[in-house]
Amino acid sequence: MLDRKYVREHPEEVRRALETKGVEDVDLDVVLEIDEEWRELKARGDDLRHERNEVSQTIGELKQEGNDEEAQEAIDRSQELKAELERVEDRADELKAELDEAMLELPNIPHESVPVGEDESDNVERYREGFDDLRDLPDDVIPHYELGENLDILDFERGAKVTGGGFQFVKGDGARLEYALMQFMLDVHREQGYTDVFPPIPVNSASMQGTGQLPKFAEDAYRIGARQDDEYDDDDLWLLPTAEVPVTNMYRDEILLDDDLPLKHQAFSPNFRREAGEHGTETRGYVRVHQFNKVEMVNFVRPEESYDRLEGLLSEAEAVLERLGLPYRVLTMCTGDMGFQQAKKYDIEVWAPGDDMEDGPQEGGRWLEVSSVSNFEDFQARRAGLRYRPDRHESAEYLHTLNGSGLALPRVIVAILEYYQNDDGTVTIPEVLRPYMGGQEVIEGHEKVGESALGAGEKD
Questions:
Q1: pTM attached to this predicted model
Q2: Which residues are catalytic?
């Protein structure tokens, strides 16, 4: 949420943010008009209260003097002032509710260093890592969704049967690989000074609003409860779309101390989103799914330190890919592609060689986003009431929040299955993960079960 005073005093910068972030459903002029009328009514209310206090004092003085006629006139005036004050306050409350709702629709102001652009084609590549010494790959790399089914470690058909499209079973060595990645990532970030948090999976609407998921992205989230005529029969709970939501809201409406900062938390969680791919390779397999696991890093920092911390957070996320030996690149996101809440955002994209991609480092492959590293400045802090006291005797101020995935597991698994694939269709396990898998070095697959594993002749 933006500061109302900032919006009032810098309307052109807010208009520019609306334009460059592609927010078309907000009329800033209407917001400013509501704010102006609300402030006029607040001032009028203050004047009425002041006058009423003076009249009340006069009534007592007139009664003491025995001037009953003038005292009654003052009493009548007091009643008029009371009635007018109630009307003013009721209207001010209505406008305040409208203003609060409108402010939730205003996006964060992009940092001056963010490139202006409309979509992902305008993002700026900062650098690539891991391409100087690529491992030898098979002549024809099998896409992960085919390889995963061949090895019987990914089962999309049964996942869809049990739940629906976009859900899957990860089985056998595939599940072990996911568990290994989870623990490996947590260990890496502990080395970087993170404190573990295991959050609740359902979150309430106040938490979703605090981090900016509501009201903007309500359609992308899973609400718990039955919907009837636009009303929900539920406990006001959502399945979390990212651990950013509960971890950031841990300290909602609290005041931290300067000595507490910087505060670095990490959380593993399942996440639930209505992901939608744009084309075939995006919707197939384990890339865009509705349930996925992720390790999230959340930072609470002093405002003057947040951009240095953003670079540090980026390095902390990159460390996972570096140790896994996976090639990747880092992008600075443009205004039109970086999101509603962020002031600045980097994306880390891992290279997966199993599908065609025109701008790949060699023939074949595609980029998969595995982490978004973001600085929200005080945008989330204002929504969630996150403050800190620079000194015990100073007024509390809004802190800055940052987060980054460290990393999203499904796409890392896609990259491992494709990049560490061997000619015989097996997959070499990255060396750093082997201690987490009992020393296992290769995923060779499993025998399938059930009649579906039989050939047509065998079924007969």
A1: 0.91
A2: 273, 288, 369, 372, 411
